[in-house]
Design brief:
Pfam families: RHH_4 (PF13467). This is Aryl-sulfate sulfotransferase. One of its GO terms (molecular function) is transferase activity. InterPro entries: RHH_dom, RHH_sf. This protein is of the alpha+beta class. The chain has one domain: Orthogonal Bundle (Ribbon-helix-helix fold). Helix 1 crosses helix 2.
Length: about 70
């Protein structure tokens, strides 16, 4: 199921939609890296290409993380 989530990035509220599986993996990645979920989302947001969608950037990050771990 796709759910809406909200986060504060650099003092601004934003929202994004993610499937439950991606949300679960993002939380696991943050835990594995010893960082907060908010810090991880902020890092991904800072690194995404201009004009790209935050939801897509989060999904691609999870995909890359999982591929690199195998």
């Amino acid at each position: 199921m796709i759910r809406k989530h909200s986060a504060t990035l650099h003092g601004h509220r934003t929202s994004f939609s993610l499937e439950d599986a991606f949300w679960t993996e993002l939380k696991a990645i943050a835990n594995a890296r010893g960082t907060s979920l908010a810090a991880l989302i902020s890092e991904i947001d800072d690194g995404r290409e201009a004009g790209s969608n935050l939801s897509s950037a989060l999904r691609l990050y999870v995909l890359r993380w999982l591929k690199d771990r195998n």
